[in-house]
Design brief:
Length: 570
């Protein structure tokens, strides 16, 4: 029997872990509402919120090429179910006069993020359910998950990768089901597995890389547990039928969205024209995952978004996201591989027969396969971004929480995640969102409303600004947005001088938004400014601050974003 003092210590440790998880969960929700100022990647806006703000709220937005009818590569189902629902809610509240000013830059930013933050607790539920099955401590795994900056920052943003991670978590729960008595449960979740796999594929076709190991694990499980071939076929038939039905739902929704056929026209036409409409839909059928794969399997297209060495996920991105946990997993993976090779040699030397695979084991080797197999498949593509790996946090924390692997590294883990949260949650392009908040208030100020003014907003050397956060209706022609991206000095100055030369009307205002690290470039353009606003902090990794300047008294301007109002007396 266990010593009473040992059980008491273990119980006290569990209580501390519960309290710590609750604190980190509150931090996740509170930081979302604050809100986080860091801007991770344009896709967090332009793969859902920006598109839905234009469709539902009728705001001026920029539609990315993936959502154009000429090149539909993204399903509209998940944007409608997430950002679309939240925008419909705040629109309804405003129309019902429950909230007179519900639609503003804050609610446009936070409402979709809040929904994703609520969804992120699917990860916590999954870890709690899966930890006993994979021989991990549930509360230590939950603390590792909730304390990771990947959960705090990436899983509270509107990325398709976030949804991919949540669907991967649900799939792992379904394939790892077990009765409370400890014996294996009957695999009755075939329909749900088919639905989630298909939905994940339509969300991001790369989901198949994550779903491969869970599906193989589930297949091996039902083959071993079912003695009746009829029952076995029944399981696979349910999965295939539900997968096909889900695919039809997605294809139908995407086809209606990306084609000119209107639902109103369908219901208002007679029988003969309805047949014509159905025929037209069939001709214009949109299958977004195939378009996505067709585009991304072309190396030339991937090169437009950036090419990376094939080992970037293993050597850079995994460490950038997960730190020491990724390194520990690599070390354990090599040990597992070495052990398996020794076992293979020993088995073949003793008898002639297959050595057996580790796929059906319930221990840590299988968790490593859940982690490294998707990573290996994603490494086959030349375009490799860190966010592509965020779904792997689930098998990684389960693996790290078993056998006390992460305990001796806890101080390093805490420091790593504090740094990551500060860098990506606050600093990285951190001035752009507050800048858009400031400009939205300026454009919609009472003075501007009573005396209509024309605004020209020129953004240079920043990430693409989400226009929806300016809260400008499509019918409002008072605001012009010019995105110069990373234009060189000559092109930038030519555009600024051109705008200055057209500066004729008395109620025209021209603002130039530019990081402090390239502030000196504007001074060479021969224009003057009457107002300067510095938003701090803002870190541009494309135009990083110089270390000598940071050590001087000018460090604040180097880590800031300037809003410069052009003077007429230039």
């Amino acid at each position: 029997p266990r010593a009473p003092w040992r059980c008491a210590v273990r119980g006290g440790s569990a209580m501390v872990a519960r309290a710590l998880w609750a604190l980190l969960a509150a931090l996740r929700a509170g930081w979302c509402l604050l809100p986080q100022s860091g801007y991770l990647h344009p896709d967090e806006f332009f793969q859902a919120p920006e598109v839905m703000a234009g469709d539902i709220l009728n705001l001026q937005v920029y539609y990315p090429w993936e959502f154009l009818s000429s090149s539909p590569c993204r399903t509209v189902v998940f944007p409608l179910m997430t950002s679309g629902v939240t925008y419909w809610v705040i629109k309804s509240l405003q129309q019902l006069d429950i909230c007179s000013s519900c639609i503003n830059s804050y609610t446009l930013l936070v409402s979709p993020r809040l929904l994703f933050t609520i969804f992120s607790f699917i990860l916590d539920y999954s870890v709690y359910r899966l930890a006993p099955f994979w021989e991990a401590d549930p509360w230590k795994a939950l603390v590792l998950l909730a304390g990771s900056y990947v959960t705090l920052v990436f899983y509270t943003r509107t990325f398709t990768n976030t949804l991919e991670g949540l669907l991967f978590a649900l799939l792992m729960v379904l394939v790892s089901s077990r009765k409370s008595s400890g014996s294996s449960a009957e695999p009755t979740s075939s329909p749900l597995i088919g639905i989630i796999t298909t939905a994940g594929f339509f969300n991001r076709p790369t989901f198949l890389a994550f779903a491969l190991m869970p599906l193989l694990y589930w297949t091996g499980f039902i083959v071993d547990s079912q003695k009746n071939i009829k029952t076995l076929i029944n399981h696979f038939l349910k999965l295939i039928l539900c997968a096909c039905f889900t695919a039809i739902v997605f294809i139908t929704a995407d086809t209606f969205y990306f084609t000119s056929v209107s639902l109103d026209n369908v219901y208002s036409t007679n029988k003969s024209s309805l047949i014509d409409v159905i025929a037209q839909l069939h001709e214009k059928m949109v299958v977004t995952p195939f378009n996505f794969l067709s585009y991304n399997l072309n190396p030339h297209n991937l090169a437009l978004h950036g090419s990376h060495p094939r080992v970037t996920h293993f050597t850079v991105n995994g460490i950038m996201l997960f730190g020491i946990l990724h390194i520990l997993a690599i070390g354990a993976g090599f040990k597992m591989l070495k052990k398996y090779v020794h076992r293979l040699v020993w088995v073949r030397s003793c008898y002639r027969g297959p050595p057996g695979l580790l796929v059906h084991s319930e221990g840590n080797p299988t968790l490593l396969l859940f982690y490294f197999v998707p990573l290996a498949f994603l490494s086959l593509f030349s375009h490799q971004e860190p966010r592509f790996l965020i779904p792997l946090i689930l098998p990684l924390v389960l693996f790290s929480a078993s056998l006390r692997r992460a305990v001796k590294w806890k101080h390093l883990i805490v420091m790593f995640n504090l740094l990551g949260a500060f860098l990506f949650g606050c600093l990285h392009q951190g001035g752009l969102i507050p800048c858009l908040f400031h400009l939205e208030q300026l454009i919609h100020s009472p003075v501007s409303s009573n005396h209509p003014r024309h605004y020209t907003l020129l953004f240079a050397h920043t990430y693409m600004p989400p226009r929806s956060l300016l809260n400008i209706k499509k019918t409002d022609m008072r605001v012009e947005i010019i995105d110069m991206a990373g234009s060189g000095e000559k092109t930038l100055c030519q555009t600024v001088e051109q705008q200055a030369s057209n500066f004729t009307c008395s109620d025209c205002h021209i603002f130039i938004i530019i990081p402090g690290t390239v502030r000196a470039t504007i001074t060479k353009c021969g224009v003057s400014f009457k107002n300067e606003t510095l938003i701090f902090p803002h870190l541009s990794m494309e135009d990083p601050p110089q270390i000598p300047v940071l050590s001087s008294g000018n460090w604040r301007s180097q880590l800031g974003l300037y809003i410069l109002e052009l003077s007429k007396d230039h």
